[in-house]
Amino acid sequence: MPESMPQDACELLDADHIAVKHLFVEYARQAMAAPEEARDRQALAQRICQELTVHAQIEEEIFYPALREAIAAPQLLDEAQAEHQQAKALIARIRGMRAPDPRMDDLVSQLANAVEHHVKEERDVLFPKARVAPGLDLMALGAQLKERQDELVGQAA
Ligand SMILES: [Fe+2]
Ligand SMILES: [Fe+2]
């Protein structure tokens, strides 16, 4: 996606979902091809954690609060938030590891499964509700998400 092309909030968030899915697939490929070379996968694991952390943060700061206002489904957002907490607990454990650690592959695989489930809920349930919510400006929200994402990525660099 070119830098200049504006995306609505759901498109922007789903582009992140797809990007991180590719990283998980690459991680699994490397783990399969050379199980003993855990050190080589450490940087990839850290990148996955970093991208997911920024993604969760922009959802929590901008997207979820806007949805709480716009759709009458607080329990869905509570669930999504709880799933973020579970993912963050796994991320904290992975980030705390010194490579090579034999538990890393298992934790990354648990994280991949948790994220896959969570993303499915966002795609199948939350995004469709967001798209029909009256008064929710998804383009404006997309711009806000992008701005915050750029800021957080800049801070991490
Ligand atoms: Fe999420
Ligand atoms: Fe998401």
UniProtKB/TrEMBL annotation:
PANTHER family: HHE DOMAIN PROTEIN (AFU_ORTHOLOGUE AFUA_4G00730). Residues 11-130 form the Hemerythrin-like domain. It comes from the Bacteria. This is Hemerythrin domain-containing protein. Pfam families: Hemerythrin.
